């Protein structure tokens, strides 16, 4: 439980200087992902044990904090952890399995002590990789285009599939848009259509940083609340707008794109996303 304790202590220290100091869903997502990497068998029952152990460790650490934390803070941390669990379960259940197992009810079992063993595990990427030899359909798709949606499609379409459909439409139909992504305000990648050489974790973290700096600059310069962030480079634009419900839509365009058309298409995409979020 060492990493969870360290995470909460860092959050508690930041509370003294910042109005937003709680641990985010992205922090718990990374912590749980590292724990999953160390599991010899990441089936549903094993994952349930990890989640239950995490919930127990979280409550224990919060109740032991000095000075004591409020009940509302504890509830908020528990919700952030549950959101991270839901994200991991969605991706785990959408990944293809070589030997499918019958569904197992997520019930507490013997709780492994996993937090202390994960201090040096590298950060896990949110994307799912496949062996080209085992998945010829995916290999063929990547041969035709270097841009590929990083989620596995299922029938019927899940909410994540709907989000990826909107992103793919924006990337393919909007003039000059080369890549796009939906990212939470705390820097967690929700879904993306990115170039193969772009790291999801880095893109998500940079987007959250742009939101923070842009919002502060807008207020300090007397421009009131931030509406969008536009960055222009030699190779094109990075455009960031709000998608509602704590989500951000990022579009990366080439140098020939027309910002007016890009904003129009992004607004259309936001309207479609808000029906799903």
Automatic annotation (TrEMBL):
Start and end residues of each Roadblock/LAMTOR2 domain: 163-253
Family annotation (SMART domains): Robl_LC7 (SM00960)
SUPFAM superfamilies referenced in this protein's UniProt entry, alphabetically: Roadblock/LC7 domain
Transmembrane segments: none
Origin: domain of life: Bacteria
PANTHER family tied to this protein: LATE ENDOSOMAL/LYSOSOMAL MP1 INTERACTING PROTEIN
Protein name: Roadblock/LC7 domain-containing protein
